[in-house]
Amino acid sequence: MFPEKNQQTPIPQPKTYPLGEIGEHLEEKTAMALVVLSHSAVEQRLYAAMLQASSENGEPPEPLTARRLLALTGIRSLSTIRRGLDGLLAKLSIKRQTKDVNNGREAGAIYCVYQPEEVIARRRAQGFRGVETRVLNYPFERAIKRIVEHQNLSRREAQVALCCVEGLTNAEIGSRLQVTEQTVKFHLRHVFVKLGVKRRTELISKLLR
Fold first, then answer.
1. Range list of H helices, 64-128
2. Three-state SS at 12
3. Could you state, in order of their start, the residue ranges of all structural domains in the chain?
4. In this structure, what is the dihedral angle of CA atoms 25, 49, 42, 158, given to the nearest 10 degrees?
5. Choice among 6-20, 90-104, 144-158, 186-200 with the minimum mean pLDDT
6. Which end of the chain is more exposed for a tag (fewer CB within 10 A), N or C?
7. Of 149, 72, 81, 74, which Cα lies nearest the Cα of 109?
8. Options 3.40.50.720, 2.30.30.100, 2.40.70.10, 1.10.10.10; CATH of 137-209
9. What is the pLDDT of residue 118?
């Protein structure tokens, strides 16, 4: 049975890039930015809910199961929850604990969540090749910090801006983010307005200075 609608406690979905909710220091926000960039929208919704639940008195009051996450996130599809959890597991953002057994029957997997800094460390240790590995490049790290400081870009806009810093064309950005080239141009126009620049070269210069 799915939880009743009035039992759900949806996680607010900010319109701007979610960098300020966790961590007071710039380094912590940069780590969060790197992790968020690697998640799909559903994965990030789950990840944020799990972080919030795990921060209550140091331990979640109830085990983090797929069915509990239905109520925590407001997502009504158990299959969507499970696909999101599979994505987070593959990206080393969470881990699956041993299943509970009750009278010989499995009660379902229990999940625990890693803090952003731990996620990045685990991915590097496993040799992941993603945006988080680029933080080792000082100019790219500076660009991420500039985006953190502005805190007015949407998640997709931030992705597009960082892809520009990498030197990708609109077509290459669209291929990486799995959107059309026209969509990339749309987001790029918003980035220009929000950061007060008129062209790509100015954007890159502003983020790297």
1. 66-73, 78-90, 116-125
2. coil
3. 1-127, 137-209
4. -10
5. 6-20
6. N
7. 81
8. 1.10.10.10
9. 92
